[in-house]
Design goal:
Double Stranded RNA Binding Domain, 3-stranded antiparallel beta sheet, elongated, alpha+beta, single chain
């Protein structure tokens, strides 16, 4: 049975690497002769809708206000920090993993609460104290 290379997201979730499109390209910016002759930058593309991720996770990813996610639902990450293609590949995959982990965290629903009677009294006492202080600052009438 052939082994399938996977990107491990967390202990319960993994993503086959065949769903992630990686291509090498020349890096931009300074770097001298090495930049001009080698393709070390990695361009990662990951289609959220066509992936094997759970549906609720896909929806949370698509709802994120992240500039790396296009309108079509494709995550585009460009890694060109390192001098070697392998390090940039690992960096791009790690950034994709972090994005998916961040989307997998379900925010808690906020429950409305009433302020306690003590906190209300404390607030009103503070207001009257400030009002008295400000009243003392006013002009004295003859």
């Amino acid at each position: 049975m052939p082994t399938v290379a996977v990107l491990q997201i967390n202990d319960r979730l993994s993503l086959p690497l065949e769903q992630i499109e990686l291509s090498a390209m020349r890096a931009q910016g300074s770097g001298g002769q090495n930049v001009n002759k080698t393709s070390t930058a990695i361009h990662l593309r990951f289609d959220i809708r066509a992936s094997s991720l759970p549906e609720e996770l896909k929806e949370r990813l698509l709802q994120r206000a992240d500039q790396r996610i296009t309108r079509e639902g494709v995550v585009v990450i460009k890694a060109q920090q390192h001098r070697s293609q392998e390090q940039n590949r690992d960096d791009a995959l790690e950034r994709l993993r972090e994005l998916i982990v961040a989307a997998s965290i379900v925010p808690r629903k906020r429950r409305a609460t009433k302020p306690t009677r003590g906190s209300q009294q404390k607030r009103l006492e503070g207001k009257t104290l400030r009002a008295k202080t400000k009243a003392l600052r006013s002009k004295i009438e003859d």
